[in-house]
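Dear Dr. L.,

I hope this message finds you well. Following up on our conversation about the binding site, I have prepared a predicted three-dimensional model of the protein together with zinc ion. For your records, I am including the exact sequence and ligand specification that went into the calculation, followed by the structure tokens. Please feel free to forward this to your student if that is useful.
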Amino acid sequence: MDRIWVRFLSFILCGALVGCASFKPDSTLPLSVVPSPNADERRPSLVVIHYTSNDDAAHSLKTLTSPERRVSAHYLISRAGALYQMVPESRRAWHAGQAYWAGITDVNSASIGIELDNNGAEPYDDAQLATLQALLHDLRVRYRIPAANFVGHSDVAPGRKIDPGAYFPWQQLATSGFGLWCTSAAETTEPVPISMPVMLTLLGYDPRLPDASREAFRLHYLSDGHGGLSDDDALAQRMAYCLLKQKIGQE
Ligand SMILES: [Zn+2]
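The resulting structure of the complex is given below.
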């Protein structure tokens, strides 16, 4: 069809449809815009939690907004629980770097990044965690993000990153459905029929980095939330198997 006719048809159709506004084309190639009302905003499917490794939020805000530093996140939460947004959720923030989760290789494109003001060697403040819980709840309601997709930077960049670290209370967050957890893993003596690398891959970890993924898993699931970390391999296997069953049950 001639381009003039396509434009005319689009003008007539859009006049009759609500929410069918014209838009500026993304490509510079010659084309005709024929808007469709059958679309919405792209949806993030993953939330990645970080610590700033800093001692004050003002300093982190400066870094995360500096053109020279080329790093950002969608949100920053101060120790006192103040919430800052630096990048709209519809845009790709630069927080994950080289990363992988559950087949996703461009983690920045698929995720919301949240920075917590914490230096990595101290407990997280209650006020900060309360704001985080509220923000995670808000994101889950708006994007329907599954429990297994609330992860740490260490989970998506094993061997390269360790935040949000061994002080992060994953177990506490999981009771609200942010991230998976198994309280029964310590008690059960059931044999684990699947190898650890296979379980880690099925949980979302990068299959190209089995050893680093095992360490990242330990940091997330074998930490006590107070800086302590267990090196019990049998417990790690029972935990992974229990989490896998839980994840499959939720899918
Ligand atoms: Zn990070």
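In brief: The chain is about 35% helix and 10% strand.

With kind regards,
A. P.
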